[in-house]
Specification:
InterPro entries: Fatty_acid_cis-trans_isomerase (IPR010706). This is Fatty acid cis/trans isomerase (CTI). By secondary structure, the protein is of the alpha+beta class. It folds into three domains: 33-226, no CATH class; 388-630, no CATH class; 633-805, no CATH class. A hairpin with a 2-residue loop joins β11 (676-683) and β12 (686-695). α16 packs across α21 and α21 (524-536) runs antiparallel to α22. The radius of gyration is 27 Å and the shape is globular. The two termini are 30 Å apart. Residues 1-51 have low confidence and may be disordered.
């Protein structure tokens, strides 16, 4: 081991010890505070608005829409700058605080979800300060309001075109920035006059500033109780009643099934085909569900019931807190603005309700396993033993897009450390639950369930060896093509495309973006381990040691899933591709994982020089286009006979020309591209939208401190997608069809940072220009018009910046 690796090892050990101690201390604090209380950020009254046009709907109709379009591009997630979250009035009223609990810190911190504290006073005790002035003479409130003063500073300094030099120092210490609460707004702006809002983007219009002035003068009132009641009213209460009845039925397996569903969907946003346009969260409540009764006239009447949500630090923590004797699973309507990064939809319908009933209630509980396992264990393999493993596994694969989205679309917006555990571009397949050894023999012959969730090298090795032994028992010749779940040749969840975009990631259904460098084959037990480590057990506010342990576990799981896929290859090809997929220091003995079953079975019978292509061809034939989607002609290896310099006159010509640059290595420009670029291509009055995605290549992904050292820029590629892919556009381009030839020719000629900057300056929509907001607004409108119900507002935290640099 060289000195660098020794040093890393010592640091990791110390951090693990310190983090474990700190985590234990924090959890004692959190658990003591977790008793249920209603969230009491109550709506304001309107003492100063008598006789004015500021009424109970003013905030929802005038103020929140400005926050949506101009502010939550940065202040929309849990880790927003200064922790100021502006997706709802509660977030505004809570205010701001320095420090980011998702940042790097030795000990765990307290969580800062909006419902983690029961009152505004509790948030003030945790260091949050108000950003709006609600006391004192009305005419003095704007001058004392942090929010308004920051907007005024933006108006003074951010008139296009303005200088962007002040951005870099802030991004270089993004989690160490000073917030105005600490020293007061006067001193803050005196030292940082260019730090106005929107930060590094064009100022608000005069009309928008006037609305804020009037609103803050009136006391910054929020929605009235009547306005909120109208917003929270259910359009189709009978739909919600039907689902709540299902989740709280009297069947003996029901409480455990609902708990299983809750733990796997607690971060998701639920949308019902029978109630379009409304969004919900699945929560635990002390109050019973909506009831549907028949009145004397024979008419169905829905009797609503308020939801008193039980708030715990983690979804598997006991809900039976002080004063709670019985719990119910309820559907709570979401009225907060939807942010694209944290939004992932579980699309439900009456047909899905029927399918869930088939999966969980048309089966018998496993004999001898507890229907009431309690909450002492947090291990899903132990807790849910009474639910047949086949039902659990089938739920995961049939909803794989939902489950994987939970891993990459949590409440934290960005996380470079977490995403570096996966490669930039890969396809995911699943073992058919009917043939899965971890379903056929759920315990894999192990003596304890602990090995399933052991984050260490020894535990993972013991688990993977047990898995291979069980695989050999049931499949002595190894996996065959029939062992891959094909979604019944209709469910596109059977084939996923995963993109890692530096600090964030994207999951798509089907084969998209061209053939990637690597592939996963996920079995049930591995899928469950992955989900619980990255979602249920993950503490964004945890210590660096806790996060490193999760990252290390993710690295092991990535290797296991890659190895599973490699078992489809002929025996003699497996190690060759394993070495190709992880190179350099990643193959050194200290980090190298064993490959149990490397020689087991025989793999698929493939012909030709490329066994990977042979395997993929068989998968495609079995799955059909109903699952994979149509051929991706934008990212095909069979390039059209087109020259970049040829004039382009239509969208078909644009797609043919740009496809000549996709999925090609050894191109110079790809290493300079940001992760995600949105392009609007215009011909006359017609527009079409595309996304250019950079696929970066790394020799290895298992040395957490050496991401840049692992870079292989010559193997970077670009993929092109129709529509908008990704949540964090790094660059927006407005391209006329007549300029396509020059656009692509000059892009292909980029070979230095200077040439990239010149190209970006010529074609990019800069964040300091007057064209910026109109262009973003157009794309936002397109997103909401074309991607419902999955549309939210984009995040611009790293716009025009390479996010990995910061």
């Amino acid at each position: 081991m060289n000195n660098k690796n020794r040093f890393i090892g010592v640091v990791l050990l110390l951090l693990l010890i310190a983090g474990a101690i700190g985590g234990a201390i924090l959890w004692q604090q959190v658990e003591q505070q977790s008793a249920w209380q209603p969230f009491v950020l109550t709506p304001n009254t309107y003492p100063d608005s008598t006789g004015s046009h500021i009424d109970g709907n003013f905030y929802l109709d005038k103020i929140q829409p400005i926050f949506n379009k101009r502010c939550i591009v940065c202040h929309g997630c849990l880790d927003s700058p200064c922790l100021l979250k502006l997706t709802c009035y509660e977030g505004l009223l809570r205010g701001a605080r320095k420090g980011n609990p998702d940042g790097t810190h030795l000990f765990a911190e307290k969580p800062v979800r909006l419902y983690d504290q029961p009152s505004l006073a509790a948030w003030r005790e945790q260091g949050f300060c108000s950003v709006v002035e609600q006391q004192g003479p009305p005419e003095e409130r704007p001058g004392k309001s942090i929010l308004f003063r920051m907007l005024v500073a933006g108006t003074e300094h951010n008139q296009p075109p303005f200088d962007l030099k002040s951005l870099e120092p802030v991004y270089q210490s993004i989690n160490k920035h000073i917030c105005p609460c600490e020293q007061g707004i006067d001193a803050y702006l005196k030292q940082r006059p260019t730090a106005g809002m929107p930060f590094g983007m064009p100022a608000l219009s005069a009309d928008e500033n006037q609305l804020f002035s009037e609103w803050i003068t009136a006391g910054s009132p929020g929605p009235t109780a009547d306005a909120m009641a109208k917003l929270q009213k259910l359009a189709h209460p009978e739909v919600i009643a039907r689902w709540e009845a299902f989740l709280n039925q009297e069947a003996k397996l029901s409480p455990l099934v609902s708990r299983f569903i809750f733990e796997h969907t607690f971060l998701a946003t639920l949308h019902f085909e029978e109630s379009p346009g409304e969004y919900f969260r699945l929560v635990r409540s002390t109050t019973p569900p909506i009831q549907t009764k028949t009145d004397e006239g024979g008419k169905q009447v829905v009797i609503p019931n308020p939801i008193h949500e039980i708030k715990t630090a983690r979804p598997y923590d006991t809900p039976y807190l002080k004063g709670v004797d019985k719990i119910y699973y309820r559907l709570k309507k979401v009225t907060e603005t939807r942010v694209q990064k944290s939004l992932f939809i579980w699309q439900l319908s009456d047909a899905k309700l029927k399918r869930l009933d088939e999966l969980f209630f048309q089966v018998e509980p496993v004999t001898g396993k507890s229907l009431t396992p309690g909450y002492d264990s947090h291990n899903p393999f132990e807790v849910f033993q009474a639910i047949p493993a086949r039902s659990r596994a089938q739920f995961l694969v049939e909803n794989s897009h939902l489950i994987v989205s939970g891993m990459i679309r949590g409440p934290v917006c960005v996380g470079n450390l977490a995403t570096y555990a996966i490669k930039d571009n890969f396809w995911v397949f699943f073992v058919d639950p009917a043939h899965d050894p971890s379903v056929l023999k759920p315990d894999l012959g192990l003596q304890s369930w602990d090995e399933f969730m052991d984050y260490g090298v020894v535990g993972n090795t013991k688990y993977s060896e047990a898995y291979v032994r069980t695989l050999n028992q049931y499949k002595p010749t190894g996996y065959g093509i029939e062992d891959l779940w094909d979604g019944n040749q209709q469910n596109s969840n059977a084939w996923l495309t995963i993109l890692r975009n530096e600090t964030n990631a994207t999951v798509l259904r089907g084969r998209q973006g061209g053939i990637p460098p690597t592939f996963w084959l996920i079995d049930y037990s591995g899928f469950e381990r992955l989900y619980y480590s990255l979602v249920v057990n993950y503490q964004y506010y945890g210590s660096v040691a806790q996060k490193l342990a999760t990252w290390q576990f993710m690295s092991h799981l990535r290797q296991e899933f890659e190895d599973n896929f490699l078992r489809l290859l002929p025996v003699d090809d497996r190690q060759k591709y394993r070495d190709l997929w992880t190179r350099g220091i990643g193959q050194s003995l200290i980090f190298r994982m064993p490959f149990p079953g490397e020689k087991a079975g025989q793999g698929l019978d493939v012909t030709g020089p490329d066994p990977i292509s042979g395997v993929l061809s068989q998968i495609q034939h079995r799955f059909t286009q109903a699952v994979s989607g149509p051929p991706d002609l934008l990212n095909t290896g069979d390039k059209p006979d087109v020259k970049l310099a040829d004039p382009v006159s239509d969208f078909e010509g644009w797609e043919a020309a740009v496809s000549t640059l996709t999925m090609r290595t050894q191109l110079k420009f790809t290493q300079f591209m940001p992760s995600t670029t949105f392009v609007r291509v215009t011909k006359g009055g017609e527009h079409r939208v595309y996304s250019l995605v950079a696929n970066r290549s790394y020799a290895f992904n298992n040395v957490v401190f050496d991401e840049n050292g692992a870079r292989q820029p010559e193997l970077d590629t670009m993929s092109v997608y129709r529509g908008l892919v990704g949540d964090f556009p790094n660059l927006i381009i407005d391209l006329k069809i007549k300029d396509v030839a020059a656009f692509l020719t000059e892009l292909n000629d980029v070979s230095t940072p200077e040439k990239w900057t010149a190209w970006k300056n010529r074609y990019g929509t800069h964040r300091n220009t007057a064209a910026f907001w109109p262009m973003l607004d157009w794309l936002t409108d397109w997103n909401f018009q074309n991607r419902q119900p999955d549309a939210g507002y984009f995040d611009l935290k790293y716009y025009m910046l390479l996010d990995s640099k910061y």
